[in-house]
Specification:
38% of the residues lie in helices and 23% in strands. The protein is of the alpha+beta class. It has a single domain, classed as Alpha-Beta Complex (Aspartate Aminotransferase, domain 1). Strand 2 and strand 3 form a beta hairpin. The longest helix is centred in the first third of the chain and has 20 residues.
Length: 141
Amino acid sequence: MSSKLKSNPATLAIIKSYPDLVQTKLQEIRNLIELVAQESDQIAEVQETLKWGEPSYITKIGSTLRMDWKEKSPEQYALYFSCSSKLVSSFKAVFGDELRYEGNRAVVMLLNEDPPKPLIKKCIHAALHYHKLKSEQLLGL
């Protein structure tokens, strides 16, 4: 099966510039993004790019999904969603305190913990399919 993720060398260079553990965690998330795309008949391609210097993922039917690690909060990394979307508010309503949030824009994970992959995968799916799901109650989560 060919990859639906169209990788970008500049994005990979950003990820490789981070400490080893951060690289591993971001690569796990990148692999989940690719898996969600592979499992979806609705996604033809995920374009990997840089937005605001952060690894970002875009589909024709989705909302931009970004991920990053910041030196000012070295113990965590995050998935960022459009703050004008219903994504994070829907995640809060469905997953509650099973996830950590930063306002209405991010799901935050700690480097010293395994990410809750089934929940993160659902968040990724909602973002990559957002324009198909935004009229559904809680995005169909």
